[in-house]
Automatic annotation (TrEMBL):
It comes from Algibacter aquimarinus. InterPro entries: Thioredoxin-like_sf. This is Thioredoxin family protein. Pfam families: Thioredoxin_9. CDD domains: TRX_superfamily.
Length: 205
């Protein structure tokens, strides 16, 4: 696993480079991923607007900021995504804002379709759901936790709907976007702070 992760990290890009790439894709009416369709290009354009909005509007409380800054283990957050992914457009900017508050956290991004072997090791209920955050301890190179594809409350919301209706409908997906907009990233912040609290040095020994 370590060699695969190291290989993926070598081919990764920063959050800012990811934003720049998505801007270029929008200009070219395209998207990341093996499949190229008008719909995926449109999702990519929509997601760029979402990410730019969240980059400006995400608010992290003073209490949450203090807890994030207390984390003192050196880690890399390797995120698997694609430009067209709606959940990613809401989740990744929040993860980036958290990482900006602590120099011990370094964000790197790779694309699912270019990293199928890596993706296959971090499935969600057997599926290649994205975005997927892989938390790597920089000293040992070990994976210490994962997160995603959705924050905990959204995951519960999705699971309840699937249990009742069997699959997600277009109307539900629209409702899920409203949930993200109403929550304003706070569930993600709470989830990640809880995960950071679990990443004690003893985990790596």
């Amino acid at each position: 696993m370590k060699s695969l992760i190291n290989s993926s990290l070598r081919n990764s890009i920063s959050y800012q480079n990811y934003i720049d790439l998505v801007k270029q894709l929008v200009e070219n009416n395209s998207s990341t991923g093996a499949e190229k369709t008008e719909a995926l290009a449109n999702y990519t354009k929509l997601n760029l607007r979402r990410m730019k909005r969240w980059d400006k509007k995400i608010n992290i409380s003073e209490e949450a900021e203090n807890r994030i800054k207390q984390f003192n283990n050196s880690v890399t957050w390797l995120i698997i995504t694609e430009s067209w992914c709606g959940d990613a457009a809401h989740v990744i900017p929040v993860l980036n804002k958290i990482a900006e508050l602590n120099s011990n956290i370094d964000i790197k991004i790779v694309f699912r379709d270019e990293n199928r072997e890596l993706m296959s090791m971090f499935l969600t209920n057997g599926g290649e759901a994205i975005p997927k955050l892989i938390m790597i301890d920089n000293e040992s190179g070990e994976v210490v936790n994962t997160y995603g594809p959705r924050p905990s409350e959204a995951t519960s919301y999705v699971n309840r709907f699937k249990a009742m209706h069997g699959k997600l409908t277009p109307d539900f997906k629209e409702d899920l976007q409203h949930w993200y907009n109403k929550d304003k990233g706070q569930n993600i912040i709470d989830d990640v702070i809880e995960l950071l609290g679990e990443l004690k040095p003893t985990v790596y020994q």
